[in-house]
Amino acid sequence: MALNVHQLHIFCTVAERGSFSAAAHALHMSQPAVTMQVQALEEHFGCKLLNRTTKKLELTEAGLWLLPQARKAVELMRETDARMVQFARELKGRLHFAASLTIGEYVLPRLLGSFLKRHPGLSVSMKVMNTTEIIEAILSQGLDFGLIEAPCDAPGIHAKPVMDDELFLVAPRDHPFAEREAVELAEVLEQPLILREIGSGTRQVVEEELLRHGADERKLRVVSEFGSTAAIKSAVEAGLGLTVLSAWTFKHEAALGVLKAVRIRDVSFRRKFYEVRLPSSLLPMPAAALLDELRGLTHAPD
Asked: CATH assignment of 5-84?
């Protein structure tokens, strides 16, 4: 029987999930079908790849060697699919994925209209969750891929940058900071702050950059935490405190003059948005096309 990438993909998923049943759930296959494909792979190579005698599957020496090679083959196939997107006349189907708050509520709505007009056979199903929830959904619920706002080093997750973003300190128009070109970090630490909840990509970027300048989260005067950017903007407009937000999220309020971006001297909240998925997952062509479009963006559109 000839070797095929589909079998390698299944083998990678079984190895990453730790059981045939979990792999079957992630792959939307029956457990016997997954078992049969792994057995066929073992027959092809003439050696055992997995030990099934323990409670949890373990890779044999041959399986340990094969796993990174199989991942390379699966990744090559994914890249091939992505390259072929440009030759596809029409993309069809339903695109399922998740995005963290800034991307899901402010970045993608600006893009999906034109994207779907060019591909009328496509529809989109997008869940908006924070970074931690997206990683959990990929690992435990079989989610194809997600878009998040901070680096990810979670075990078993492949993360790849797709575009750049910059965050700014945001003040209401009647705040003394709004009249200044830049402020000192020490001044900001004295101000009441309204931030995203712990676990969000935005919160992670803010805390990491401040920590780099010697200001850990215990020094912040966090008066409120919200899981909604809209709620944060309303609270800032009402004078409850300052915040740090992506440039994508307050362009409308800045144009109206109700919110003002303020630079903190020598502090830069720059970050990248990331595509996250299982290393063995093969992206459908519509997903590859959407990610290609995101990679072409360098700033928040006007």
From this structure: 1.10.10.10
pLDDT digits (tens, 9 = 90+) for 14-33: 998 888 988 888 888 899 99
Secondary structure of residue 222 in the 3-state scheme: strand
**Rounded CA separation 273/281 (Å):** 19
> Architecture of 164-270 per CATH?
3-Layer(aba) Sandwich (3.40)
E-strand ranges in the chain read 50-51, 58-59, 93-99, 122-128, 146-148, 158-172, 182-183, 192-196, 221-226, 243-246, 259-264, 269-277
Average pLDDT of span 84-113 = 81
Q: Using alpha carbons, select from 225, 228, 245 the residue that is nearest to residue 171.
A: 245
| pTM recorded for the entire structure | 0.63
Dist. CA 279–CA 267, nearest whole Å: 34
Tokens of 290: 């959407």
- Judge whether residue 71 has pLDDT over 70: yes
* Structure-token pair, residue 194: 């309204």
pLDDT digits (tens, 9 = 90+) for 101-147: 889 988 898 888 888 888 888 888 899 998 889 999 998 887 889 99
Quick one: how many helices (H) and strands (E) in the chain? 12, 12
Chain position carrying tokens 């072409």: 296
Domain segments of the chain as ranges? 5-84, 91-163+272-295, 164-270
DSSP string, 177-214: GGG-SEE-HHHHHTSEEEEEPTTSHHHHHHHHHHHHTT
Helix or strand (DSSP H, E) at 21: helix 20-27
Query: Is residue 300 pLDDT above 50, yes or no?
Result: no
Q: Does the 91-163+272-295 domain belong in CATH 3.40.190.10?
A: yes
Beta bridge partners of 128: 99
In this chain, the answer to whether the domains covering 91-163+272-295 and 164-270 adopt an identical fold is yes
